[in-house]
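Summary for the steering committee. One of the milestones for this cycle was to obtain a three-dimensional model of the protein with succinic acid bound, which we needed before selecting residues for the alanine scan. The sequence and ligand used are listed below.
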Amino acid sequence: MSEWVTEKMAGHCGARLSGVSLLTATHSDLEQMRSALFEHGVIVMPDQNLTPADHIKLAEFFGNIDVNRFFTPVSNYPVIAEVRTSADQSAVIGGTWHTDHSYDEAPAMCSILSARQLPPYGGDTHFASMATAYRAMSPGLQKILSNLRAWHSDGSFLDSNVGLQKNPDAFRDPVLHPVIIKHPVTGSPCVYVNGDFTTHFENWSIEESAALLEYIYRFTTQPIFTVRVVWEPGMVAIWDNRLVQHYATADYSGHPRLMHRITVEGVPL
Ligand code: SIN
């Protein structure tokens, strides 16, 4: 019987799990995979080659699927979002540091990305540990941030130029989340503001918030807190949106890239 071989990919987040096929994984294999996700923030599993139906089954192990309101769905699989870059596009979906679905009242717990078509080079995805970033802050800054909440909005999708849908019915009112959340499973404190969706601190103006938010984004995405995932054909990556932020690298202009993404429902933070 095969078992997961787990290799850490960087000092503060990321692990590569190999040796088990998700198609034949036992419940215990899947539970180990979930524990690895909470331990490492992001896990990658090479050579899985999931069909859309396999991808949905994997997502349902974690919980109910949280269908994205803005992404184009995969044909015949409305719960899977297409993350597509065409060869003539230079901007990419997710090409800035962000947290999936932070604009929702109960933001997505994890995202599961399955490689379908990769460029000949580039298109790597970076992840940064928000738990490590919190621990690295001074006690003074930790204390200030722990007493703040911030507004998150899906409004940035209005200006996006990466082929997302702009259905007016998809937009919702902004929501408030603590700036430092307690991870719902591990209890670890994590920084929870991001450049794509956080607009300002509660009871602060946008202008007043901007300088401190900018500092937090710069601090939390320092290379030492990150791991770089270099995609391989058939690879699947799962990340916990409460533990890490991510960034898709737009460095393969002239080449198409297609990924399938499913997000799984989370809880209010
Ligand atoms: C995303 O932001 O979910 C997409 C990441 C990627 O395409 O690498």
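Key point for the committee: The longest helix spans residues 206-220.
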